[in-house]
Amino acid sequence: MSQPVLLHDTGNSPLRTIVVGAGEAGIALARDLHRVSSFGLEPVGFLDDDTSKLRRRYGGRPVLGTLADLEQVLERNDVDVVVVAIPSMPTHEVKQLGLRAASLGVTVLHLPPFLSALQRQIAGTDMRALQVGPLIGRPEMHVVSRNARAAIAGKRVLVTGSGGSIGSELCRQVYGFGPEQLVMLDHDESNLHRTQLELWGEALLDTENTVVADIRDAERIFQLFRDYRPQIVFHAAALKHLPMLERHPCEGVKSNVRGTQNLIEAAVAHDVERFVLISTDKAANPSSVLGATKRLAELVLDEQQPASTVLTAVRFGNVLGSRGSLLHVVRDQLASGAQVTVTHPDVSRFFMTIEEAVGLVLEAVRMSDGSATYVLDMGEPVRIVDLVRNFANLLNVRDVDFKYTGLRPGEKLTEELFGAGEKALPTDHPRISMTRPPQPVPGFRAGLRELYDAASHNRPDEVFRHLRRLVPEYSPAPGLVSAGAPYPDDF
């Protein structure tokens, strides 16, 4: 292995970036990223397997090592992002780079495949859609620290909802941290197949690390915990589409509350070290069934307070780039020349990237020492219409025609991060706050049993009544029923 070069920290505010490939594509990309500050990436050097290029400078930036030196170069140069500028690099090699970089909390971006790169002339504009700063009004934050690796390395880790956007990204980053075993659980075998294919480059679904199960099935969940004995559990499985749960509240209770309690009880019974619940900002002063059920899941978690298992919740804003998220819908509408449907001209949301969301989860594992809820500082809420216009500009679409369809039942104009009776408390991370939720209402456990009974017998009116009693701050927002608008409710 060659000896990698050490750069000194220059104190640049953009994200420190290593470009993989010191060929024409990499040199052109590094030049464009340096010239256009809005990309938010500042190249500090290259990696290239051509050893004749080592210590040579291209555009004023040195070749710091070969791909074998990746971890050393990232650690010694305080790197935030790796950009692969070898368009012809096989997908499985890019994924392996991503796993290696993720183990150090570093994000990997990739230029388009070779033919697409030729069409686009391998310009820095290929990276524009990957930069979220112009969309959400703040730079992307890489919140995961290198200390998070120590909390996961060598552990048996279970991820529920591992076929979803957040769950699969959790699996990818956790796998890069070197766990003793990664168990991926989902009720949808197609999603499991996709996640396994992304991680290993093949997906035979014949290994012990992929598990089909429904979190509503308490007996099955206890069996899995007994067999696998996980030490860390990330609970990302949930029903999360707000309009659907307004129409089918019993299903929201069965999955988001009862399913969560099944997992928590199994975790406590089997001495799990740390359990992390993925929640949502809609749980703060909820106005929807989604928010109320996720708030109730937080209360179920907090009410346990076991001696040996650390129970933690993490609240997300809306996640950009996840499957079915707002940008995917808007992109398709802009491409077809159709009107962009938005519920209200003033509706706003907190936004974050998948990398930020998963980084928050991993930091919560590292920081948590007792029951608490962790929240990322996501800046100010962003109006949906502003985000759409900024996104359209990145796609060189100058005129956007909006169609306003009206607020839906349960939808707020603006989300909140902290609910009634909650106070934001500092942590050892400057961009992450925590709060300890208030005590549940008297008769909480008996009320839960009544809620579960109503849900199991599919009595929605009773479910609404029990939700209001168990979550006093739950105040349903009436909204206006309307079809056809993309609802940005990913978290």
Q: State the strand order across the main sheet.
A: 9-8-7-10-11-12-17-21-20
CATH architecture assignment name of the largest domain: 3-Layer(aba) Sandwich
Domains (count): 2
Q: What is the residue-mean pLDDT, rounded to a whole number?
A: 83
**Amount of helix:** 25-40%
Question: How many β-strand runs?
Answer: 21
Structural shape: globular
Number of helices: 17
Radius of gyration: 23 Å
Q: What is the CA–CA distance across the termini?
A: 42 Å
State the CATH superfamily name of the largest domain.
NAD(P)-binding Rossmann-like Domain
CATH topology of the largest domain: Rossmann fold
The CATH class label of the largest domain is Alpha Beta
Biggest sheet features: 9 strands, mixed
Structural class: alpha/beta
Strand content: 15-25%
**Spans where pLDDT lies below 50 across 5 or more residues:** 1-12, 113-130, 479-491
Which tags fit this structure?
491 residues, alpha/beta, Rossmann fold, 2 domains, 21 strands, globular, disordered N terminus, NAD(P)-bd_dom_sf, Polysaccharide biosynthesis protein CapD-like domain-containing protein, Polysaccharide_Synthase-Rel, Polysac_CapD-like
